[in-house]
Batch of 2 targets.
Target 1
Amino acid sequence: MFPRLLLGFLWGVVGASAAENNSQPLLLVSFDGFRADYLQRFPMPNLKLLYSQGVLVEQLTNVFITKTFPNHYSLVTGLYAESHGILASTMYDPISGKHFSLQNDSDPMWWSSVQPLWLTAQESGYETAAAMWPGSDVTNRTPTHFFHYDPDVTFQQRLGNVTNWMLGDGKKPGAMFAALYWEEPDRSGHNFGPENTTAMAKALKEVDDNIGLLMDELKRTGLWGRINLIVTSDHGMAQCSADRLIRLDDCLHPDNYTLVDLTPVAALRPKEDPERVFSLLNECHPHMKAYMKKSIPDGLHYRNNPRIQPILLIADEGWTIVRRGNKLPRLGDHGYYNSLPSMHPFLAATGPGFRQGVQMKSLQSVDIYPLMCRLLAVPAQPNNGSLTSARCLLAGESCWETSVVIGLVVGVLLLLTIITVLFRCMGSRPTAGPRPFQRLDFLCDDDEPLVP
Ligand SMILES: [Zn+2]
């Protein structure tokens, strides 16, 4: 009973302080494929300046599969891929018979089962905006302001539009929530591999220069210090090699299945007995794990959706699945298990809603959504995230980390136990009359006989 009361009190304090939080506009920026350890490997002076005035989460545990579209949709919904339905870069929907690809992604059918933050904020009466964020140009599901995807639009152009949208036209408030997407350092990570220090140093220098531009533009427009800014990413990057190829044709004739997605997570629809196809694939390669859909581990949160195909193959870190041959498609890749540090991105944030000088080792990426809802004071849709850890990043929130709360409760219980035992021992000492209760041998005095 006591721990429950204590916890209730603590969360009551937390809730009360949250209610007093005033909301400011929020800008969410994603640099695709920014692996968490780039922060240690490369200088990044502008990014470091940004989080020195705010918070840093060194590693985000993102969602499986660790690809761009699933993770960007998770950031704005707080949902695992199986729940929001954007499961991969290439999908097949067996109910509608439709196919999804990065070139054919704007059918609302794929995106409509859940509501991204820009729609929720609109329902709360706010204008919203997005520049190239995956899913933000889908018909009838767009923010107030948006672009159709065009990789040729420069970072500066995207940024200039976002700040204009956030400033408004002077007659009504600007966008309360805006999201900005940039393709680097993902593109360089694929082309050169994350272990190519020279090439990645150049790519990361450009990313850091863009972060400098972002900070300068926010200062020039007067938005710096008035809005909350989150800079994050969707996934990391692993080094691949032509020496680490897994060839499906070595194990199974291609006539036996339809391939929906290939690497590093292959999705297959068997054309004949699924168990037989599975048993061939299960023994195909020591660096590739095969799963029947029903056996995909719970922890991946990647089973409960009809768009997940009957057989899933997951390559080990740095291995590439191909159909045949010796050609390596990319020197760097992502999509692997989300438990791998190489797949993790980071998060940095600053603004009036954030604490200053706080660093956190890790956070679940699905926790960012409830954090953003709290910052905007809009009601969160049902999600897989939690504010339990994320609230420690926020100014004006009482932060009680779970480990501290548990330690406090255990300490108080221990103290109460010791006091009770001591009291009973003192009460059990022999006096003139009969002893009131049986003593506790292991803590009380030694040579006295037990009361019969
Ligand atoms: Zn990529």
Target 2
Amino acid sequence: MEPQTGNLKTAWQVSLGSYYISEEYGFLLPNPLRELPDHYRPWMEIARNLPHLIESHQLRAHVNKMPLLSCQFLKGYREQRLAHLVLSSITMGYVWQEGEAQPKEVLPRNLAIPFVEVSRNLGLPPILVHSDLVLANWMKRNPEGPMEISNLDTIILFPGGESLRGFILVTVLVENAAVPGIKALAQAMHAVLQPSQDALLEALQQLKLCIQDMTRTLGRMHDYVDPDIFYAVIRIFLSGWKDNPAMPTGLIYEGISKEPLKYSGGSAAQSSVLHAFDEFLGIHHSEESADFLYRMRDYMPPSHKAFIEEIHSAPSLRDFILSSGHGHCLTAYNQCLEALAELRSYHITVVTRYLVTAAARARSRRLDHLPGPPQALEDRGTGGTAVLSFLKNVRDKTLEATLHPSG
Ligand code: HEM
């Protein structure tokens, strides 16, 4: 392959900021807002009280009394992101307050209309997404302090107490651990365009270390999240109304559409990090997996999706490494794939513990005639896929991209 010429160099400027990606926090929204203008107090009062309102079965009654508020007093992007987090969280609570056996299949207009309006403004679907629950749902207790769990808190919660807080904040920390990798990726793409093999090697080595750090950080889930609470309490509030037997027809958004609409639940499959790494490394997933993963891109902030698409259309890293014959870059590239496959293998053990094993325990408990957890969602991800075979397939395709020296 010919090295890229100057034209492309200037045409492809990897400016993270122009994709709303922060140099400091990556895809996390930097210092998310915690308060909306006073006009929206009815929303905030309910959102702040969600765990109690859901557990005491009062949320639906409170929502039904909520005034219909227009989104026109929301100023700017950050207020809109908080409004989306707030309205999506209220929606999940409203639908699932009585568990999977009695979902509410109609969202009242005083919630549906502003929720769809703010969703359209942001280019997000009207359901709780990863960019709500995680990316816009964190704060530092001490603003000068470090990104450590002891210095972090959430803004909005569901039932699930400390386990839910841990689930959200460990995921925040995984996103934060990805930041050096996102920067390395941008540097590597510059290095391909320049071209500079030394700069590429350094960036690939940095990317590998970052992925390993993400794996270590994911491991902290075990310290903070109780599998039985995740399975029986938390999971349902992340569940959507697409491919979900508990809500086969979807949800009617009153005042928006007479037909029910179907949306997948919140999942870190909607995180932009691994999508970006996969595109950069040129990993091809099988058709079925790719269909699901591509669909998840519609659940990301549009600027993050655009970043992933930009990486996709950039000159191929793999072609560059093969044609340059630079053995160290090839080794470093393969090590990135190994680290990513290890991250995915580790994630599979997490999913096994939090979904598969927890489901088995819940089943045996049901035999003891104890109150059961959600049933229709069993063995399914919160995004509604046949979980383990999908995850293993995605992991195996990661390793299939391994490069072998040519000639
Ligand atoms: C208790 C913790 C977790 C559980 C139970 C869990 C569960 C799942 C499930 C069921 C899927 C399949 C897709 C779906 O149904 O939505 C999935 C996919 C995925 N999860 Fe997680 N997850 C957890 C934590 C995380 C964290 C912290 C991250 C990283 C930010 C993450 C990243 C991903 C990614 C990237 C995918 C897409 C598949 C891939 O690219 O390998 N997960 N997860």
